[in-house]
Amino acid sequence: MRKLISITIILFLLASCKSYNKNQTINNENENSLVESDTVSISSDENDYEIIIIEPGFNSWLMTTARPEGFHSQSWLESRNAIMVQTWNQRNLQPQTYDPNLYELRIDYDTNTDYGYEVNYKLYNYFLYFQLKYNQRLSAFRPRI
Length: 145
Known about the structure:
Residues 1-21 form the signal peptide. This is Lipoprotein. Keywords: Signal. The protein has one domain (2-133). The protein contains 4 helices and 2 strands; from the N terminus they run H-E-E-H-H-H. Strands 1-2 form a two-stranded antiparallel sheet. The longest helix is centred in the middle third of the chain and has 19 residues, at 74-92. The protein is globular. By secondary structure, the chain is mainly α.
């Protein structure tokens, strides 16, 4: 399972390498206060899973805009993550249709594995941030903040 998390980390690193100003829908009023190495790291000794998200602005967005931890149940987060990971992976396989700089790597998310609440919470919120920042839609559900 460490390979899953490693692949996810690499995916987020690569997705954060290119900035997109065209069609950007997140309003960054405090752009000057964002740190280029804005990093969120979650690790758990209990289940040996770790997720590291390096995306300028994500940590600030998570602390100020995202719904607080506990707002959604873990099962709800897992069901949404499964849908968005599936869409992500389908787009990863179609670089001629979808920007390959956004969907560079496949995410190996196993729906039968309990990654814990914190990992699912941060992954779900990263997907929301990604959809808003890059004007993408990973599910039929509208991103709600």
